[in-house]
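Incident log, structure service

09:12 report received: a user says their structure output differs between two submissions of the same chain.
09:20 pulled the input from the user's history:
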Amino acid sequence: MTAAVAARLLGIVAVVAIGYLAARTDALGDADAATVLSNLAFLVFTPALLFRTTALVDLATLPWVTLAAFFGPALVVLTGAYLLARALAREGDPPGAPAVRAICVTFGNTVQVGLPVVLALYGQEGLRLHVAIVSLHALTILTVITALIELDLARARGGAAAGVARTALATARNTVIHPVVLPVLAGLAWNLAGPGLPAALDDVLQLLGQAVVPVCLILIGVSLHRYGSRPALGRSAVLAAAKLLVLPATVLVTAYWLLGVRGLPLHVAVLCAAAPVGSNALLFAQRYRTLEGEASTAIALSTPAYALTLPLWLAVLALLPP
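09:34 re-ran on a clean worker, output below:
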């Protein structure tokens, strides 16, 4: 692991610690800081980032084989984690628990951690492939996980009694009219329409999008203080291990042996899958008031553990014949 990557991980842990200390010392006041930060990130900053990203992505030059090598297995792992979490659900678990656990296992920190890692190891060509994955990351994984959690909530509200068609309609509506999915769809529509982003609008979106990273990292620290980590430590460790080990292993097997992906595209896909749990897992948990402690602890555990698992995956990739 390079010094640049180690420094980035240390910086992320430091910002999370600042958030924790700010909450512990009441520096953020008596208000519900976690809820305020979550709403800002989920309803203001993240939609701006997602809209701008999808509005500007060059759809014609996307590396579709690399994308299939990442998203195919990622969706398989997401579905498997969701079904397993439903099967193992305990009495008293909230209805959104399986979806929150599934997003912890599949949604990685591909920007704050993944991007500098790929840039340091593979340069601009690797970064081009990584950015292509990141540009569709939210559209693919967050849309699916939103549909799953909305479906579970509809069932919990008596969707079965209301009828399959009405439940499906309500789930589809809540999935689309959503602060994560809607800006992605709007950005894609803007992209396909082809007008480009006016400079003034682009500046506003860029300023708002830049706030996502620090706000989410502070939110993780605040949530660790608010919800505590001990009750969720065991389950969070399982989620973190699955994210760091199961997802990249599934991508590796699928890409290398089933799709025949080799070289740089294989390395980028696997390392993207190997990133630690991303902050969107906590944003979703906060949004649905479900397992906030598990999600924040999974992020806090997986980020420093990534310093150990990254060299492991680099060694495995180096052993594979071309």
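09:41 both user submissions now match this output. Likely a transient worker issue. Closing.
09:42 reviewer note: The first helix runs from residue 3 to 24. The mean pLDDT is 86.
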